[in-house]
Amino acid sequence: MSSSLDLKQDAAVQTFDVDAVRAQFPILSREVDGKPLVYLDNAATTQKPQCVIDALVDYYTTCNSNVHRGAHQLADEATTRFEGARDQVADFINAATRNEVIWTGGTTESINIVANGLAQMLKPTDEVVVTQMEHHANIVTWQQACKRSGASLKVAPINDAGELDVAAFEALMNANTRFVAMPQVSNALGTINPLEQLIPMAKAVGAWVLIDGAQGIAHGPVDVQALDCDFYAFSGHKLFGPTGIGVLWGREELLAEWPVWQTGGEMISEVTYEDAKWNHLPYRLEAGTPNIAGVIGLGEAIRWFSSLDMEGVKAHEAALMARATELAEAFEGLTIIGRAKNKTGVLSFVMEEGHPADIGFLLDRQGIAIRTGHHCAEPLMGRLGVPGTARASFSIYNTLEEVDALFEGLKKVKMMLA
């Protein structure tokens, strides 16, 4: 008998119009080698709806200008759009104030801003904790900060299913734990971390917490105040927006005193040959001419995404993962890598018949785009005992028919590699 939750999810799937969503993405109508494109590389980057493309073109064709400094109408229009996008981000993630939203080049730069400042504060007795499932951007930054300061980097282990060992994580928390960095969602496995459990554990010992939201931001609303983290980082291109633009959110009281990352331009309030004074938030951490078009495009992407029925989005993505998992489990010679009970959007796997790179190449010849390799998570692959995986990652515009096409494609790959 179906539960009331199952019935609710079924109803949400039925009301979610994936065809209407797909129609807004022009790239999805193209072909690859004469075959319809099946785009399953969304963990690397999402495609862009026409409204985001239009927003970029409109900026460059109607009000291309620098922001804040101009004394003319084009500059005023550009600044209004630019700062309006900051308000959209603040609302989208429920920031306490717009001053907590810092524009960056992406998640990697956001993390580096925090790590650069932290390196100046760490002592040799301090410890920084990451997890075994991190993207390189959330390992190497803290690794280098610890090397510069003499602090220690600790790694919270995962189990064979690709889930964080919560008890082991808690055991790492102690009076020396200064900082904890972890992903909301694993890019390589799709594991959703139980942040509602983990963040309080870190806060209980007085540690600051940064959440890498690169993979989590496109799977539903984020409330940074409810999470009670100290920093949250994400990239626009994982959220149907342009590349080269990202966000660092941080608590206002922390960002107001955080060591500056770059100097020059917008982040300065006063300069002499002897010294300089920094601007107030958010500008003190935004040096130089920003990616204005990218900011405007990200604002439009958030407006578009926020207009969707989020219950329908979640139910549709859950249906995609359920179908993919069912077909993968029935596929002889295929092994799923990452069997977390709570996961989203990612199916990583290996096959007996071929190297992941061969699988990706042969699927591409059929118009099916996936990712192969270690997914910038090489230590994680070592923990799981594989050199890399083939990774199909799903988004709101993918269909159940595309999931079926993936496995029909894999049948051909298996025959070719046998």
Question: How would you describe what is shown here?
Answer:
- The chain starts with a helix and ends with a helix.
- The chain folds into two domains: 153 residues, Aspartate Aminotransferase, domain 1 (Alpha-Beta Complex); 244 residues, Type I PLP-dependent aspartate aminotransferase-like (Major domain) (Aspartate Aminotransferase, domain 2, 3-Layer(aba) Sandwich).
- By secondary structure, it is α/β, with parallel strands linked by helices.
- The strands form five sheets. Strands 4-10-9-8-7-5-6 form a seven-stranded mixed β-sheet, sandwiched between helices. A four-stranded antiparallel β-sheet has the order 13-14-17-16. The chain has a two-stranded antiparallel sheet with strand order 1-2.
- It is globular and about 70 Å long.
Topology:
Layout: H1 4-15, H2 18-22, E1 31-32, E2 35-36, E3 38-39, H3 50-62, H4 73-92, E4 101-104, H5 107-119, E5 127-131, H6 140-149, E6 152-156, H7 166-172, E7 177-183, H8 195-204, E8 208-212, H9 224-227, E9 231-235, E10 246-250, H10 252-255, E11 268-271, E12 276-278, H11 292-306, H12 310-329, E13 334-336, E14 346-351, H13 356-364, E15 368-369, E16 371-373, H14 378-384, E17 389-393, H15 400-417
Parallel strand pairs: 3-15, 5-6, 5-7, 7-8, 8-9
Antiparallel strand pairs: 1-2, 4-10, 9-10, 11-12, 13-14, 14-17, 16-17
